[in-house]
Write a structure and sequence with these properties.
There is one protein chain. The strands form 5 sheets. Strands 9, 10, 11, 12, 13, 14, 15, 16 and 19 form a 9-stranded antiparallel beta sheet that branches. Helix 8 packs across helix 10 and helix 11 crosses helix 12. This protein is 31% helix and 28% strand. It is an alpha+beta fold.
Amino acid sequence: MHFSIPETEGRSGENGSTYVAYNIHVNGVLHCRVRYSQLLGLHEQMKKEYGSNVVPAFPPKKIFTLTPAEVEQRREQLEKYMQAVRQHPLLGASELFNSFLRKAQQETQQIPTEEAALDICLSNGQKVTVNILTSDQTEDVLEAAAAKLDLPDELVGYFSLFLVREGVDGNLTFVRKLQDFELPYVSITSLQSSDYHIVLRKSYWDMAYDGDVMDNRVGLNLLYAQTVSDIERGWILVNKDQHRQLKSLQEKGSKKEYIHLGQTLKYYGYLKFDPCITDFPEKGCQVIVSAGNNELNFHVKLPNDQMKEGSFKVTRMRCWRVTSSQVTVSNGTNNPCKSAKCEVKLELAFEYLMSKDRLQWVTITSQQAIMMSTCLQSMVDELMVKKSGGSIKKMLRKKHNGAIHRSDSQQAVKSPPLLDSPDPNREQIVKLSTKLNSVSLRGISASNSANDISGDDFHGNYAFEGIGDDDL
């Protein structure tokens, strides 16, 4: 997830006094408004819980009222602080941090805690209404939906809740996977649009895990509905003969056989993104990106209107980063985003091993850049767990003593040291990159643009493999 504090607001307190509120955005959308004192309180709690040597430095207090320049300086410092905490494998996954954000979200949107009904959509368009509290977190809502569907507890972790936006043509845009730090009811209500829905979908990539899900009747039905939906949506490629076979299996009610046939088709299990722009192989190329099978697949339209397809394997990505900047969309101002209308521009860039001794950056400009980054990270998580001889079940988040912890395997790949290579055979390749000098081990680099509203969100990749030309 991409945290930023792009703006501040002057607000009035209950006693008539004024204060500065810092607007925390997640993926470019307002999540909550907080005061400096609230963040300071969180900082002190984390220091007490985890120690001063673990928690990043916090912007110092000021004795006198801040000038506008000092407010701006503090905004930038708080933004980097929040990003550093979120990217830390221990702090970012802590219940202390997540509960703070949930409470702040609820207070900002002024939604009281009460019973409510929430619709969860399945892949086939069917809706399941769950009775929850408005203050229930994502895990609680997922478990409520699973209970309503009669999905066994041991299979709940194979699925996740996603926020999607439905277009006028019925196409779905995946905005993000709902996180531990948000309240699904508040998130969907605050958008104030019927175009947004919460969808239940499988959360793993390796089709080998389909067998675990299909052994259960409800799991089988959910996976079958998703497969049918992806084929009808055109995400999975089907020729005429395959389409005829699938239709026959569908008429017979042979769900397992339908899924097994689906597994043999191109782009089974992939997540398809909206059309966007890339600089590969040339700048300004239109591209449709799909994520799945441990790769990003590109369907690129070249300037001469020729179509080309290619894939980038996650194991050949040295690292990746997400950047956001504010872009002025109206003319007539020299002060961007103050008097002119602005929008957030998101980019995903990854450094790819093109050949045995050549690394190259590839950039995607898309409003779904953060969702793409999330997909890459989850692919790496699965690869590392599998490489260590583990199972996806070990990746599931569990509550221990009231706190949510990740498995050791997940923590290992959350934010690996970007300049460290545990494999001596990879040292020569790693040193080829000269673009990481400004990256700190917390994953935040200095801004490269005057309009940059946040530091770069860097992700090192422990699944990166040194490979030879014969493998390329």
